[in-house]
Amino acid sequence: MLPELGHFALILALLLAVVQAVFPLLGSFYQKPAWVALGQPAACAQAFFLVCSLLCLTAAFILNDFSVAYVAENSNSRLPLHFRISAVWGAHEGSMLLWMTMLSLWGMSAALASRHLPENISARLISVLGWVSVGFLLFILLTSNPFERLLPYVPLDGADLNPLLQDIGLIIHPPLLYLGYVGLVVPFAFAMAVLMSGNLASAWARWLRPWAVTAWVFLTLGILLGSWWAYRELGWGGWWFWDPVENASLLPWLVATALIHSLAVTDKRGMFKAWTIFLAIFAFSLSLLGTFLVRSGVLTSVHAFANDPARGVFILILLGISVGSAMLLYAWRAQSLREEVKLHLWSRETMLLANNVLLVVMTLSILLGTLYPLILDAFNLGLISVGPPYFNAMFVPLAAPLLFLMALGPHQRWSKTQPSEWLGRLRYTFAISVTLGVVLPFVVTGSLQGHVVLGLALACWVLIATLQDLLGKGMRRGKGFTGVWQLPRSQQGMVIAHVGVAVCAIGIALSSQYSQERDVRMVPGDAYTLGAYTFLFEEVVSGEGPNYTTTTGLFEVSKTKRGGEQVIGTLAPQKRLFYVRNQIMTRAAILANGWRDLYIALGEPLDERAHAWAVRIVYKPFVRWIWLGGLLIALGGFVALFDRRYRQKVAQAFQGAIDLGRLKPANAE
Amino acid sequence: MMNSANSNNHHQKHRLAWLRWAAPLAVFLLLLLLFWRGLSLDSSTLPSPLVGQPMPAFSLEMLHDASVLKTEQDFKGQVALINVWATWCFACHHEHPMLMDLAYLNRVPIYGLNYRDDREAALSWLEALGDPYQFTVFDPDATVSIDWGVYGAPETFVIDQKGIIHYRHVGVITINDWETVFLPLIEQLEQAA
Question: ipTM score of the complex?
Answer without folding.
Answer: 0.77
